[in-house]
Amino acid sequence: MERDSLQWLSGPASHMHLRLPDERNLEGKENLQFTHETATYYLGRLYNNPKVRITDTAHALLSFRDLDNLSRPNSETTESWSDKIITKASTETLKRVLEMKRLANNNIIMGIEVDIIDNQGHLSLNDECLKEIDFTIASFHRFIWTIFSEKVYYSPEDLVSMYLGAIDNPSVCVLGHPIRPSSKLVGSLGFDDFLPVIDKMNEKRVAYEINIIADLSNKQQELNLKIIKECSQVGTPLILGFDFHNAGGVDFLEDISLDNSKIEEPNLNDIFCQNTNIHYRVFRRLIKNIHILEKLGVTREQIVNSSDQNFDQWLAKRKLFN
Question: What is the CATH number of the domain that holds 266?
Fold first, then answer.
């Protein structure tokens, strides 16, 4: 059974926040991000597939580390200020993508996690930038939305509106972590609220992201699991994502002490062999969540990144819908 479950992970590992080798000035735990080389090595060993592909999806705004300066001057209009920030983020993102393409191996799929910045579903990168990127995840992060919208609280209607707008963007491939509880949500997001989003995703062939490293057995996942089941029944694409920034941010690894040397080249084999406890925990969570999805009626064939062939065919077919 476990061997069969691992077949669900035969395609590209999605939503990995990787860093360039010389990016050592990231804040806090972000210093513990994998580079392309370490991520490829680690997942290749974990999956027993040295040719494993990975989507590099750095966060568009965080990648140029200017969040502290994202406040609109009183003398500037919201529209003018937003255009300026989006232009800057797009310029910096393209520089990073070009550098990654120069350095990365053929296993890396160049992508981005872009923010939804308003209720119309506008994104934090411009269309010219997004067209140069192979794989785009659009996500709602409340603190980014607050900066651009200048609102603190949001409603289910706000969330649905921004998702519908983002899905209409032809560059968007995936809706990132669509259901995530927040104390700033006014009202209760229900299953029926999300049905128009499911329909729109099905129409545009945008994939609903399942965080395969989260604890899907948690009670807070009830709405998420109900939506996943609906997606599987109506044929909406599903994708397994890690949303992996660093090991310190994974709930079942919080008690493990890590330092920068744990993820540095060139002694990758020694590092891997010294951390069997981490590998076992990751493997156990992956298998547990796949079993939960199977009980919902989700099949491997419905997961767009369950194989390289499924993934490539899905991306190719998306162009016919956009």
Answer: 3.20.20.140
